[in-house]
């Protein structure tokens, strides 16, 4: 399975962790879990938080004036998300005239009146993600409400990124799709890989994940397509459990 798909298939997560993804000129794409804690809502609009953003987006304030708080544009959005707690999305963006603006996208879950826990943070540097950032939403997967975020990128290999959560007593919890990824690997022919990123492969309404399958070492980016693999799944708590996996050969190749 390609790195793009592996990164998109989430490992188990808990409400005390946040999903942090980003792009830097040195590291490229990264995704990991980091500890998170509760803060008053004011913290996410504070000078401290703005400076964290500015330090990351301006090479450590190489030019002192670049770290002026007035260079940050803040926006806040809320969507009704039952049965999830009150959720907010906050975007920090540099005030620029370019189409691909550096920004942070933060998703918060209310844990007590006036207190919020950050469950997702996207750090966009170098225009890897398209502007403007998308809004999170809630969609049905069978009888389960799933919170999701899906962000389009400028990459031809990894054209979007996404995360999915279910509501648990401890808070929104990342869905574990690793069993589904294993079922896709098993169903695909030998010496081939599933190449569709999770954000594009999953269909919550159909309870399925569908991916294009390509030879492991194709002669070109658009060569060596073998067919597609479809995994039907069910949600058991925060795990996506495979029900069936079928590979269909592409008769044209």
What report would you give on this structure?
With 253 residues, the chain is mostly beta strands. The chain has 2 domains: 3-174, no CATH class; 178-249, no CATH class. It has helices at residues 3-8, 47-57, 178-187, 198-201, and strands at 17-24, 28-35, 38-40, 72-78, 87-94, 103-112, 115-124, 137-141, 144-152, 160-168, 171-174, 192-194, 202-203, 208-215, 225-236, 239-249. Strand 8 and strand 9 form a beta hairpin. It is globular and about 60 Å long. 33% of the residues are buried. The model is unreliable at 1-14 (pLDDT under 50).
Which radius of gyration do the C-alpha atoms yield? 19 Å
Count of discrete alpha- or pi-helical segments spanning 4 or more residues: 4
The residue fraction in helices comes out at: 10-25%
Largest sheet: 7 strands, mixed
What structural class do the secondary elements suggest?
mainly beta
Secondary-structure element order, N to C: HEEEHEEEEEEEEHEHEEEE
Strand content: over 45%
Overall body shape: globular
Taking the alpha carbons of the first and last residues, their distance comes to 20 Å
Count every beta strand, where a strand is a DSSP E run of 2 or more residues: 16
Q: Low-confidence spans: pLDDT under 50, at least 5 residues?
A: 1-14
For the record, the count of structural domains works out to 2
Question: Taking all residues together, what is the mean pLDDT?
Answer: 87
């Amino acid at each position: 399975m390609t790195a793009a798909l592996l990164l998109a298939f989430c490992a188990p997560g808990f409400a005390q962790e946040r999903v942090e993804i980003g792009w830097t000129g040195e590291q490229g794409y990264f995704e990991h879990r980091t500890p998170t804690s509760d803060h008053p809502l004011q913290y996410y609009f504070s000078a401290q938080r703005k400076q964290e953003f500015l330090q990351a987006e301006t090479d450590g304030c190489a030019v002192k004036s670049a770290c002026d708080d007035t260079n940050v544009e803040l926006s806040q959005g809320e969507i009704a998300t039952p049965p999830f707690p009150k959720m907010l999305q906050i975007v920090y963006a540099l005030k620029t005239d370019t189409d691909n603006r550096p920004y942070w996208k933060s998703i918060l879950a209310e844990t007590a009146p006036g207190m919020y826990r950050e469950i997702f943070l996207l750090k966009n540097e170098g225009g890897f993600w398209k502007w403007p950032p998308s809004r999170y939403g809630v969609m049905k997967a069978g009888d389960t409400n799933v919170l999701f975020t899906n962000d389009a990128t400028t990459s031809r290999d990894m054209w979007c990124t996404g995360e999915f959560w279910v509501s648990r007593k401890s808070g929104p919890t990342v869905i574990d799709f690793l069993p589904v990824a294993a079922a896709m690997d098993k169903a695909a022919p030998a010496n081939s890989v599933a190449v569709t990123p999770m954000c594009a492969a999953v269909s919550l309404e159909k309870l399925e994940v569908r991916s294009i399958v390509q030879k492991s070492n194709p002669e070109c980016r658009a060569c060596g397509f073998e067919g597609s693999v479809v995994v039907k799944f069910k949600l058991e708590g925060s795990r996506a459990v495979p029900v069936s996996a079928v590979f269909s050969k592409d008769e044209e190749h």
